[in-house]
Amino acid sequence: MIDKxxxxxxxxxETFPPEHxxxxxxxxxxxxxxxxxxxxxxxxxxxxxxxxxxxxxxSRVTYSKLLQGQLAHCYITDILSSLATVPERIQRLFxxxxxxxxxxxEVTVYPHGVPTKVEVDGHFPYFGxxxxxxxxxxxxxxxxxxxxxxxxxxxxxxxxxTLTADPSMAFTFFTGYATGHLINENLTENELWDxxxxxxxxxxxxxxxxxxxxxxxxxxxxxxxxxxxxxYYSLLEAKIEGYKKxxxxxxL
Length: 252
What we know:
252 residues, alpha+beta, two-stranded antiparallel sheet, 29% helix, globular
């Protein structure tokens, strides 16, 4: 991969340019409040952000530092967090994990299970009023979540299209493997727990989704556990705790 960056002109991916159409393809379908919000989103090159000026895209991968940002698609950041518990799963997606912010980024992904190389540039959505990156990012100046989210958005057509995408399709997109689903109602507690432990031993990346709350009592029960209604989470660990080893605990 060559350095396509210069002080006079930065490389622009013409197939997914830093323009409003890459943020949202059909702005006329938004309500007034949504349209105002999206109109405030612009683009910034990562070399114009001090923390990312000399960053390498995936030489360092930290799953616990990943932030969702303002796009309500928690599934994608949770999938990336789950994959990042084994850093090599993220690093091998990049043709050059040590590529710097001055370069383009080439990633191998698996649309419909087929390995495909995709290139994106270093421009990312930026929210001017807050002077902050608008979508996926980390608190430790790592580039890989921003790049992978952009590759996903490019595949779908726009960042807005990621809101309604299928999480299982995203898992296959980044891994090349088929996905499976566990539905609580179809399993006993013991069967569910044993399956989680089995998948954990096999180092399967996992996410889970909380049920939608419909009553005040349900909301309060979620609040005690610091959970949100109808929300995706990375399922990072399942373990037995307690003095008598009788507490089943999952870490999200």
